């Protein structure tokens, strides 16, 4: 009788231990009710997880708000409807969406995706499109500054608002078409590469990855660097010429010199934007170019993605530092003066 009772007690202890083990395992799963098919959560210390949450949430909010201010400023005030500012508007739109996409990245902190396979594909698809559109906009900005500095007499006839609008539209359309082709298999069958429920990953073919690398990085960066080297050389020579002849200019020429300085300042400001963009995006694409991404740890890959997010937040700060019209427009927006009649006709420059 004692042996039978001891056997039952031992059996009960085994069952209890088994239940406790399943509970502990279930607590580490994305979907505890799916023990055999659920993905496991990423094991991070609580302090580290909370720090990442706070950092990404703050970055997302600041990025979205600052770029929304740029979008409202350029869209509302008629005096800011210039070809150069239309390029900045396109860049601000892409950066604004980056700020929104950071919220999706926050959901992946613990390694679990709860929105389903379709939303995973939509998130990744939009991320590819926005990144390519940003790079394409940077190319358009470089061309704009190249024509303004190197061919100033033809700028007003070659660079018009309508042509810039067409170029920006083509930039976004090409980005959509390119990544629709690259990701067509994944768009048809979301979640085909997931190994468990709660995962948000996918792979593209070698050819598609190579096309994306060439079209979204190598060609645009080459064009940007070449054009801005040319702009820099011409800007330096023009600055020297203006300093050497400053004493002999007439009033009429003085106006031309002032206009030239304005173009030079715009070139310098947008040059800072381009340089910051290249610094923030090069690490990600350079790793892809070398093909050594599998050898790098997750921390470095996370840092690369974080740099891209930071770049979208830095652009409005650069505008605020260099452009008085942006600082003035922020005051009008914050104080709600843009709601007044005829506020769109306010003098901003």
TrEMBL record:
Domain of life: Eukaryota
Protein family according to the UniProt entry: Belongs to the G-protein coupled receptor 1 family.
Pfam families: 7tm_1 (PF00001)
Protein name: G-protein coupled receptors family 1 profile domain-containing protein
PROSITE patterns xref list: G_PROTEIN_RECEP_F1_1, G_PROTEIN_RECEP_F1_2
Annotated TM spans: 50-74, 86-109, 121-143, 164-183, 203-236, 270-290, 296-322
A molecular function (GO) term: trace-amine receptor activity
Protein keywords: Cell membrane, G-protein coupled receptor, Membrane, Receptor, Transducer, Transmembrane, Transmembrane helix
Membrane topology: Multi-pass membrane protein
Gene Ontology cellular-component annotations: plasma membrane
Domain G-protein coupled receptors family 1 profile span(s) in chain numbering: 66-319
Source organism of the structure: Dicentrarchus labrax (European seabass)
Compartment(s) where it occurs, according to its Swiss-Prot or TrEMBL record: Cell membrane
InterPro entries assigned: GPCR_Rhodpsn, GPCR_Rhodpsn_7TM, TAAR
């Amino acid at each position: 009788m004692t042996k039978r009772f001891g056997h039952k007690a031992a059996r009960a202890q085994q069952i209890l231990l088994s239940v406790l083990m399943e509970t502990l395992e279930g607590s580490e799963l994305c979907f505890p009710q799916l023990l055999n098919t659920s993905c496991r959560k990423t094991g991070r210390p609580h302090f580290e997880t909370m720090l990442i949450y706070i950092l990404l949430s703050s970055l997302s909010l600041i990025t979205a708000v600052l770029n929304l201010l740029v979008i409202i400023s350029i869209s509302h005030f008629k005096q800011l409807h210039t070809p150069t500012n239309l390029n900045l508007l396109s860049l601000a739109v892409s950066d604004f969406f980056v700020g929104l996409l950071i919220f999706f990245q926050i959901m992946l902190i613990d390694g679990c995706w709860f929105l389903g396979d379709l939303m995973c594909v939509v998130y990744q698809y939009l991320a590819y499109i926005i990144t390519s559109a940003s790079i394409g906009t940077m190319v358009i900005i470089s061309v704009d500054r190249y024509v303004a500095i190197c061919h100033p007499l033809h700028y007003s006839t070659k660079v018009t608002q309508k042509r810039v609008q067409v170029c920006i539209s083509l930039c976004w359309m090409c980005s959509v078409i390119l990544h629709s082709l690259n990701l067509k298999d994944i768009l048809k069958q979301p979640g085909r590469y997931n190994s468990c429920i709660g995962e948000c990953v996918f792979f593209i073919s070698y050819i598609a990855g190579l096309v994306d690398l060439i079209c979204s990085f190598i060609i645009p960066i080459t064009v940007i660097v070449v054009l801005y080297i040319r702009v820099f050389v011409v800007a330096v020579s023009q600055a020297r010429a203006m300093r050497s002849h400053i004493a002999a200019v007439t009033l009429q020429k003085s106006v031309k010199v002032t206009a030239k300085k304005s173009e030079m300042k715009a070139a310098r400001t947008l040059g800072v934007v381009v340089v910051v963009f290249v610094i923030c995006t090069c690490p990600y694409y350079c790793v892809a170019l070398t093909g050594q991404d599998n050898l790098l740890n997750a921390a470095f890959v996370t840092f690369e993605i974080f740099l891209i997010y930071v770049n979208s937040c830095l652009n409005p700060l650069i505008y605020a530092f260099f452009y008085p019209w942006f600082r003035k427009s922020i005051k009008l927006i914050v104080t709600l003066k843009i709601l007044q009649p005829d506020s769109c006709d306010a003098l901003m420059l």
